[in-house]
Design brief:
Layout (H helix, E strand, L loop, with lengths): L8 H15 L12 H17 L1 H12 L6 E2 L2 E2 L2 H13 L15 H11 L5 E3 L4 E3 L1
Antiparallel strand pairs: 1-2, 3-4
Helix pairs in contact: 1-2, 1-4, 4-5
Length: 134
């Protein structure tokens, strides 16, 4: 099995948010459209964030399971990993839809946002036949 096909939900959501920020919603892409270096960087960034943010993400997951919090993207209810991957891309790049957009409960929103922002921005662009880090 190709390594690119074994991504977790969080990382897939992060990559989808990144590509949508570049090309718009509904764009069709394959993971192989990412340059190998960009793919590796995005996967590694997601793994590092999830490790660092495990405690607040787990706490929000508990609140979601108890029905105390609902997370959405474009009005559709989503699970914590989908929302967090999307919010990581947005927060670290100062875009709309990040951890401070309203769905994430306090104090977790601030903590997650600070962790994302601390990673610094990461941009992607269309290169020759691939999407690559900029």
């Amino acid at each position: 099995m190709n390594t690119r096909q074994r991504l977790d939900v969080f990382t897939r959501s992060y990559i989808r948010a990144a590509v949508a920020s570049l090309a718009g919603d509904g764009v069709v892409f394959r993971l192989t459209d990412l340059s190998p270096e960009t793919f590796d960087r995005m996967r590694d960034d997601c793994e590092a964030f999830q490790a660092e943010a495990a405690e607040p993400l787990d706490a929000v997951e508990e609140l979601v399971c108890e029905g105390l919090v609902t997370l959405t993207i474009d009005g559709d209810e989503v699970d914590v990993d989908v929302k967090a991957g999307h919010a990581l891309w947005a927060s670290r790049n100062a875009a709309e839809g990040g951890f401070l957009a309203g769905d994430w409960p306090d104090p977790f929103a601030d903590r997650l946002h600070d962790l994302a922002e601390g990673m610094g921005p990461y941009r992607i662009e269309f290169g020759e036949d691939v999407i690559q880090g900029a």
